[in-house]
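Work Package 3 (structural annotation) set out to generate three-dimensional models for the target panel prioritized at the project kickoff. During this period the team completed the workflow that converts sequence records into discrete structure tokens, so that structures can be stored uniformly alongside our sequence database. As a representative example, we reproduce one entry of 222 residues exactly as it appears in the project archive.
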Amino acid sequence: MAVRRAVVVWAAALVISCGLLALPLVALAATSAVNIQGSAFVPPTTTVHVGDTVTWTNRDAFSHTSTSDTGVWDTGVIRAAASGSFTFTAAGTFAYHCAIHSFMHGTIVVQAVSTPQPTAPPTAPPTPVRTAPPTVAPTEPPTLPPTEAATPQATTAAPSATASAAAASPQTASPSPSGVAAQLTPAPGTAGSGNAPLLVGAAALAVLALGAVAFFLARRRS
């Protein structure tokens, strides 16, 4: 039972699918009517599309036909109040006539089915071009004038002044003991000649002391 039900369901689905596939063809196909009246085709020119069907209906009291001039179709005899049809499968312009009444003529214009053009995808907006920022040229630092080397005159002048002062000190100090000695040395034949050796010794010590002080100061300054 389950197998039978499955087969029935599958068959029903197949039929429905075929019907759905055929719907577009049915919807696209159309039927155009041409009346045969007063021994003429009305309208004389009919425009259809590939896949359309043209139906001729006889409104006269006597028979007519719809016959292609090139033998594409022939409806045969269409009696009064009867109809004949033909489905066009190719595009083109087809002239036809009535085989019973040769003066009756008509034209069928068959146009190809226009295929809808695919919609173009939306065009993406152009990518903005990024402009690079202007390049700033590096500014060179100002060139400083060369610094002149300090002349060693000031440096060498100090020792020179010190040396000269040191050299001048003994010369300046040396006359003092001599002057003292000259002042302390009594003239021969004066009073107190017995103290002359003591005075000479004191003067010599004073000279030595002054010389030592002058030498110490000169060494300290240098």
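The beta strands are 31-36, 41-42, 45-49, 53-58, 67-68, 83-87, 92-97, 105-111.
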